[in-house]
Structures are given as structure tokens and as C-alpha cells.
Design a protein that fits this description.
Largest sheet: 5 strands, antiparallel
Strand order of the largest sheet: 1-2-3-5-4
Bound molecules: guanosine-5'-monophosphate, zinc ion
Number of strands: 5
Number of helices: 3
Order of helices and strands: HEEEHEHE
Strand content: 15-25%
Radius of gyration: 14 Å
Structural class: alpha+beta
Amino acid sequence: MEDCIFCKIVAGEIPATIVRETDDVIAFEDLHPQAPHHVLIIPRRHIATLNDLTAEDAETVGNMARVAAEIAAERGFAEAGYRTVMNCNQQGGQTVYHIHMHLLGGRALAWPPG
Ligand code: 5GP
Ligand code: ZN
């Protein structure tokens, strides 16, 4: 997808600190981390928002969650706890229109969100 910053990261056209790559998913460090650990997990395929998911995407979205849990375990904060977040559209706080799962860990996180 032209002009999609995350598609450009998938294509290697702009730099990112890649944490993990699978057939359908990549994970990289968030540019503006909001916690000691803040990783973004995205599908390689361009999907603009959660509203655009189809049944065919189910496995990929499942893999995104699994990769998040694996990274949390590798980094040693799985037991302490962490948060995964997928923002959708304007009121959900989505700013990049290629779906992504935030993995936030390494500190206690407040709830409810603002
Ligand atoms: P959203 O607000 O859409 O849920 O989250 C977008 C996230 O992407 C933000 O946390 C933001 O810091 C991150 N981000 C935006 N542009 C870039 C970029 O070019 N590289 C990386 N690594 N993260 C980015
Ligand atoms: Zn994209």
C-alpha cells in the first residue's frame, strides 16, 4: 500500500528495530515507547483498521497475539503482566492506518484508559 508507513517498514524501505519476523507477521520497537517495553506487532498484509478484517485474517490476528505473548515471555515480563492494545479509528486513538497490536510491559499500567 503506497504511503503506508508500516507497509514501508515491512518492505524494508524505512528503518525499524525489528524484533521478530514470521511468514505473516512482523514485530518492531515503537518509535515513541510508552513503557519500558513497547513493541508493535503488525500483519505483513496491509489491513487499514480492525473494521476491515475478514475471516481470512483470523489466523494472522491470532498469530499477532501469540507473537506478543512470546516476546513478553522472552523479555521476562509475561508473569508480571503486560497489556496488548489495538486502537481503531479516531475515537479509539488510531494514528497509523495499518492494523497493529501494541505490546506494553515493564511497568504497572493504569486502567481505565483515558
Ligand atoms: P496508534 O496510535 O495508531 O495506535 O499507534 C501508532 C504507533 O506507531 C504509535 O505508538 C507511534 O509511536 C508508532 N509509530 C508511528 N510511526 C512510526 C514509525 O515510523 N516507526 C515506528 N517504529 N513506530 C512508529
Ligand atoms: Zn500498510
